[in-house]
Write a structure and sequence with these properties.
The complex is a heterodimer of chains A (65) and B (188). With 65 residues, chain A is α+β, with helices and mostly antiparallel strands. Chain A has a domain at 31-65. In chain A, 23% of the residues lie in helices and 12% in strands. In chain A, strands 1-2 form a two-stranded antiparallel sheet. Chain A has a two-stranded antiparallel sheet with strand order 3-4. The longest helix of chain A is centred in the N-terminal third of the chain and has 11 residues, at 10-20. By secondary structure, chain B is α+β, with helices and mostly antiparallel strands. Chain B has two domains: 14-148, 50s Ribosomal Protein L17, Chain: A, CATH 3.90.1030.10; 150-188. Chain B has helices at 14-31, 38-56, 71-87, 106-117, 151-159, 165-177; strands spanning 33-37, 91-95, 101-105, 126-133, 140-146. Chain B has a three-stranded antiparallel beta sheet. Chain B is globular. Classes of the chains: A alpha+beta (65), B alpha+beta (188). The A-B interface holds A 39, 41-43, 45, 50-58, 61-63, 65 and B 33, 35, 129-135, 141, 143, 158, 171-172, 175, 178-179, 182, 185-188.
Chain lengths: 65, 188
């Protein structure tokens, strides 16, 4: 069975993880209506508005992440 | 490889999938706006809009009174009504704001109301607004709605780049009337 010849160094391990295992933070914007932080392109979870109109059911629908 | 395969399967066999989209379409027609997952809404667009387009191809025949139609047009209308009726149930019951139950003829709504409303719109009769992930399975939820008559002007205003400050005031006055078509939304 093929086995690694050398233990992966901390540097190599971290270099690998730095790229494809990275976690990108959730981008948040201030809701133009109420100013609360909101995920872009979603109805605001705190005031239920999107693009200047109230979206029915939006206020409770989104759980905060 | 996923070459030339379109659509989603939703882990259902074709009859369960068809049943699901039938009821989603019927509910969309009945309530004007429904809450569902993003993936289902995206598939629902194809299904629901094709149904409306069928009615739209009749032109004015779809929404003129029976006694004003020629026998040929009556037959054409009947055929389309049957095509639509083959996909969605004939009747749906909607609870109005006061708690009253209202029975709606869905097939006639597609022909009379929707075919007329979307006569000048080249496809794209629905809009989705994203809600965010659902508690439980984290599925992205959306509101999918049939675009209302008052929305057309507001839509065009939004698409144009926000240059003039005057534009926004025009928009806000229109938006006040815009959500009128969304009264029948599922409450929870």
């Amino acid at each position: 069975m093929a086995v690694p010849k050398r233990r992966t160094s901390r540097s190599k391990r971290n270099m690998r993880r730095a790229n494809h295992d990275k976690v990108t933070p959730v981008q948040l914007i201030a809701c133009p209506k109420c100013g609360e932080p909101t995920v872009p392109h979603r109805a605001c979870a705190s005031c239920g508005h999107y693009k200047g109109r109230e979206i029915p059911g939006a206020k409770k629908a989104s759980k905060a992440d | 490889m996923r070459h030339r395969n379109s659509g989603r399967k939703f882990d259902r066999n074709s009859s369960a999938r068809r049943a699901m989209f039938r009821s989603l379409t019927a509910n969309l027609v009945l309530h004007e706006a429904i809450e569902t997952t993003d993936a289902k809404a995206k598939e629902l667009r194809r299904v629901a809009e094709r149904l409306i387009t069928k009615a739209k191809r009749l032109g004015e025949v779809a929404y003129t009174a029976q006694d004003k139609l020629s026998p040929k047009d009556k037959a054409r209308r009947l055929h389309v009504a049957r095509l639509v009726g083959a996909y969605i149930p004939r009747f749906g019951v909607r609870t109005e704001k006061g708690g009253d139950q209202k029975k709606v003829d869905l097939v006639e709504k597609v022909l009379l109301d929707l075919a007329k409303r979307f006569a000048s719109r080249p496809g794209g009769y629905t809009r989705t607004v994203k809600y965010g992930p659902r508690r439980g399975d984290n599925a992205p939820m959306v509101l999918i709605e049939l675009i209302g008559e008052g929305d057309a002007a507001a839509d065009e205003g939004e698409k144009k780049p926000k240059k003039a400050a005057a534009k926004t005031t025009v928009n806000s006055s229109k938006k006040a009337t815009a959500p009128s078509g969304t009264e029948g939304v599922k409450a929870e």
